[in-house]
Amino acid sequence: MLDALTVAVSVAALALAAWCGFAAYRDQPTKDWHFIGMAVVTLLALAQLVVGIVRLAGGERADEGTAIFVAYLIGALCAVPAAGFMSLAERSRWGSATVAAGAVVLAVLEVRLFDIWEG
Q1: Coil, strand, or helix at residue 92?
Q2: What's the Cα-to-Cα distance from 38 to each of 13, 15, 27, 69, 117, rounded to whole Å?
């Protein structure tokens, strides 16, 4: 895996979590700008998925197993979009809180992905 990409995804996810957490604190639902931020974080996670698959196809192996590595990559890709869709159903401060929680989950998944790859 590319360490710089893992750090970029983690930092972007934590920034999104802080931004949406602040919106929840201010009693605001998710807005269009939040969804743009979610799209950016999701694109970074998609880039990480592609890089991970290409590295695996190139012959490199994750230290803790390929199947679990791919499962974590897919989970990382789905964390923020799932929270975004749930925030559409809850158009209150709790929608923003849901996105903040999903972004924190993504940051934690990034740490685990790093551990799985590096061993």
Answers
A1: coil
A2: 8, 10, 19, 23, 25
| AA identity, residue 56 | L
**Structure pTM?**
0.92
28 Rama class: left (phi>0) / alpha (psi -120 to 50) / beta: beta
Distance CA 27, CA 69 (A): 37
Output the tens digit of pLDDT for each of the chain's 119 residues. Answer: 688 999 999 999 999 999 999 999 999 999 999 999 999 999 999 999 999 999 999 988 888 889 999 999 999 999 999 999 999 998 899 999 999 999 999 999 999 999 998 86
- Compute the chain's Rg from CA coordinates: 15
Inter-residue contact 83 to 99 (CB < 8 Å) = yes
CA atoms 59, 60, 61, 67: torsion sign: negative
C-alpha to C-alpha distance for 82 and 86, rounded to whole angstroms: 6
